[in-house]
Amino acid sequence: MITDKISEQDLTKYNTSAKICGLVMDELVQRIQSDILLNIQELQKYGDSRIIEECSKIYKREKCGIAYPTSICLNNCVGNYIYEEDERNTIEPNDIVKITLGVSVGGCVADLGKTIMYKIEQDEYNDTIKYILLLEELQDYIIENAVVGETNDEIRINIESKCTELDCFPVENTISYNSDKSAYMILNYKKYYNENDDLLGLQNLCFDFEEGDVYSIDLKIICNGEDPLTYMQPYEPHIYQFNDNYYNLKLKTSREFLKIVKGEHGTNAFNCLPYKQIPMTKAGIRECLKNNILTTHPILYNKNNFAIFSKKFTIIVGKEKTVMLKYNKS
User: Fold this and answer.
1) pTM to 2 decimals?
2) 34 by DSSP, 3-state: which?
3) CA separation (Å) from 99 to 25, 96, 117, 330?
4) Which domains does the chain have, with CATH numbers?
5) Which of 85, 111, 300, 304 falls 20 to 30 Å from 179 in CA-CA distance?
6) For 4-55, how does the pLDDT look when each residue is reduced to its tens digit (9 = 90+)?
7) Number of neighbours of residue 321 by Cβ within 10 angstroms
8) Checking DSSP bridges between strand 239-242 and strand 270-271, what pairing results, if any?
């Protein structure tokens, strides 16, 4: 037992979530690398359906399912992309492919994200693989150093330093957070304000890691050390998420949308595109967003076409060491 703060039962649930993540991720990567499935929309549907299928086999009395819908992002797309008809949606040679998904078993969530190269030309291989290897190195560093008594600021500074050594930098305001969202680590922190001089986004925090903390670690790096502030958001968000805020919605359609979607997904992230296709539901989405009970995961692209590399995983801070959830089959 790595910590007394998490029950043996919950630890099993966390690792069960992780194993489903690992299984589905392996299947997606195999289908891409073997040219079996290269259409992004079909890959997304496959990933989600496999998560649901695997979850149906376990814990009949627990609510199990998708915690973050399968997202396939190419090249200069930062993340949170699912499908848009006017975008190139077939993986092609020399693409940098980022796959992200998440699973919840009884509220115990595991996230998993991975970057792969698809048929990279030999003369570009070495320039590309170094960023994927850096993400592996950063993962090992975090597992070894995000321990009881260590501060997130120390971890953040060292991550940013390791990136600059390879002429890259974390994508601005990339957030890793613990399971109850009370603590979070922001890489490459930037402040932005609206016209009323209100801070947009989260405040930067400094805190100590504590025993029993469960963190979803999100690493996103851009392969240019200058980290130019040139991101665009060409699409409305695809992925939405209800929070724990409460508001007495005025519209009947809004209340119905809240009841159906939150009843199915809870506070897990979900693919909102099917709901947007229903005219009556659009008003409900707007009212939920306006009253801050529904949040979005924005889709950002780097304007200069610099490739983005990402890695996501979940850790538990133990008494003597920190461990990553068991994503492998064993």
Assistant:
1) 0.94
2) coil
3) 8, 10, 11, 22
4) 8-230+305-324 (3.90.230.10), 236-298 (1.10.10.10)
5) 300
6) 788 999 999 999 999 999 999 999 999 999 999 999 999 999 999 999 999 9
7) 13
8) antiparallel
